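Q: Can I see a sequence and its folded structure?
A: Here is a first one.
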Amino acid sequence: MGGLGSDVPPTLSADRVVLLLVDLQNDFLHPDGASGRLGRLAPDIRDVLAPLKDFVGVRRDQGIPVVYTRRFMRPGEATTSTAALAEQRHTYCLPGSWGADIVDDLPPEPGDLVVDKPGASAFLRTSLTKHLRNLGRSHVLVAGVTLEVCVESTVRDAQDLGFSPVLLRDLTWPNRGAQAEATHARLERHFCAVVEAVDVDRQLAGQATPATSQ
């Protein structure tokens, strides 16, 4: 474990890390997906896709494994505490639907792992833990949607399972505003490093990453 704070862990290297892309699905990101149809698609939610695509391309060139997650909502699979949650299970990311598919902007490539998950965390009732350990990977770069739900749940579980999660602040949505800032502060205090993509670029290119002012 380790790497808490706002600097890239010094132990992060191309042969020890995977890139984990959380829930880049049509229902969350595409204007015609469930969020868009229900009027819940934030104007800036797709802003992360272009820089994320560039970041993923560089990581692929460095031989870093890429893992995608897909959140599946299965009506009746779990109890829900509110009517809103029950409604969501009948609206979002139904198995086999276009809405559950990864967006065309950043599709998986041959050799990528796609992890289908029944809950918020990418580690809950999935093969991800075993896969990372089989690869001998100890560090997990995390990006995607949404910060305070599936991303945060994934980061917390990664740390509890003995991995070193690194949250890519600018490649995760939302990445600005009071709620995002509070989540970033909580995560870097207790669960992971919270850094900018450019800092990871520098580290993996063998350059020194400048310390972030506190």
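Q: Show me another, different protein.
A: A second, unrelated one:
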Amino acid sequence: MSLANIAAEIFMKQIGGSGNADMISTALGSLLGGSDGNIDLMDIISKFQSGGLESVVSSWLGDGGNDGISAEQITNILGLENIASFAARIGIDTDTALGGLQNTIPNMIDQSSSNGSLLDSVGGLDGALNIAKGLFG
């Protein structure tokens, strides 16, 4: 199952289970940095870290509980116009979309990390080194 499909399932649960899973999956992929309809996990992590949320993102990657994220923080990172476009694309209002994203993003990242490690998700140690070069290079 793709990351966009996992995120769509989480999102649908957050907004009450309604909606077309394929449409939500594609819309989430577009919103969260996927050029091919899937979610670019490292891109979204990088966006949130660059937005001053390093410790919050670390909680999502670790084994403990996930720190929450506010609608304002999501809006600052992703942009209100992008979120409004996402909401319109799947037929919900912007506030409902923000509420769903507040739980979907942390849970998606948490579920994608295996015991707090993204090595499997990014292609092992080589993939992690390439990501590190992009963040610090």
